[in-house]
Amino acid sequence: MAAPKKGRSASAQSRPGRSLALILIAIVALTGGMFLSGHSTPRLGIDLAGGTSITLEAKNEPGQPNAINKTNMNTAVDIMNRRVNGLGVSEAEVQTQGDRNIIVNIPKGTNSKQAREQVGTTAKLYFRPVLATEVSGNAATASPSPSASSSDSSKDKASDKATGKATDKATSSSSATPSATATSQGRAVTDALKADATPSGSPSAKSSASTGTTPSPSGSVDPAAAKLQAQYAALDCTDKAVRAKAGDGVKPTDPTVACGQNSSGQWQKYVLGPAEVSGTDIKSAAAVFDTQSAAGWKVTMDFTSGGSKKFASITGKLAQNQSPQNQFAIVLDGEVVSDPYVSQALTGGNAEISGSFTQTEAQDLANMLKYGALPLTFKEASVTTVTAALGGEQLHAGLIAGAIGLGLVIIYLVVYYRGLSIIAIASLMVSAVLTYVIMALLGPAIGFALNLPAVCGAIVAIGITADSFIVFFERIRDEIREGRSLRPAVERAWPRARRTILVSDFVSFLAAAVLFIVTVGKVQGFAFTLGLTTLLDVVVVFLFTKPLMTILARKKFFASGHSWSGLDPKRLGAQPPLRRTRRASAPVDTKEA
Question: Which residues of 21-59 are buried (b: 16+ CB within 10 A; e: fewer)?
């Protein structure tokens, strides 16, 4: 058994260059990625670089006079914080001010317009059946003519769809053709409301579905329907102010009017039925790039168990209707973002929103849907630029403190370990380069911002990294004191040093993880940096320090135990070589034998 083990050890010693090449390639690749991304420096937190301060004021909701309370305000703060600071490292600050204001501080370098949209968007999502629709500004009937499903009109909304299963796709149809007077338009809206109230299994509903006509009104006009008819006729979706007020104060259980923009850039106006599925029925959401079609970026949603049943029910009902009443509108904060039609019930428990999204827009929408809707509606009271809370002097002082600490560690290594300090200093440099490059890349990747506590975490990591070198060096010295030569001493010392290093780094990483989970704000930056540098310590020790030590152990300067190598057997008080300490065998008496 001894011979194979020796062979494996010799093989391991002969290829340390592979590990060094691997970590060198990683450094070059990460550095190249850093420069190619255009972010050659880490993004600084608001305490070091300043940023933007947004003041949001809660608005009273119609019919909910007591909605603005401490519970709802705290819930809104929590949701906003998760939207702009999902991983806890972007250094965005969200806090209440008074009874109805929320202050959001965003570090410099963050897209302030995007952040304002994230924190200010209520993100109330509803799936509503479409009762009538047309291009805003043109008179049109509520239901489209047979030519509405032509290639030209289909192209108008080709990117809007909803998915139940992998094979259950609902591709959107067009809106109505402009061909009716205001009188017929009003009658169509009223008929659509009556048709929506008619049970799907009734004779009138079946007759309408088969003939493609809407039921004729009978009796007096319902006041609610008349009001909705007037709103729809007066709705001009090309006016931004009108769009903002469309559907204000409408309950989810009531019909409403809304606006939406199609893929051709035209504004549509809609009459929508009561909400059948809401954002609370969504379990998760994600931004996905669709490689199978020209839709580009889209947002996929998975429903809860209850939401899946509701979605299957509404799509099953809509599939029995004629266009546009076989469409459902996905309404986000009162605006229609998609209006796909369905031809069968979608029972897969998921759906998707698409429609000329950019990557950022898709990710923002998925983020808002994933973290939930705000319990209150907010208006932007003010946006101001804030200066750095600490400024360059404090950062400069922190960097000086780090440099002094690093200098003291290097002096200690040179004085005590002499030649071995070359390995330690080189390892510290590799660790520093990896830390800097990864921090710079994490800025655009996850929004990581370097604040003063994070700088402190990086300084503390110097001691953790140096501790790993000291453990390894002392194990090697112990083997030399027992009389072994350097190369066998390195290979015998490594397994014991490796266990100690892993246990030590695991404890440090566990402490950082716990601190990151149980704390909020700037302390999370310290914990994140400490955990990151602890992981990098393991990478550097395994892929750089140990292989480099193996290579230098073959050099005469170290192998011969030079007085400046740090491995001089005389200075270490080494015992005579082990082979010379064996007791000689007793002489054999030939006569007795």
Answer: eebeeeeeebbeebeeeebeebbbbbbbbbbbbbbbbbe
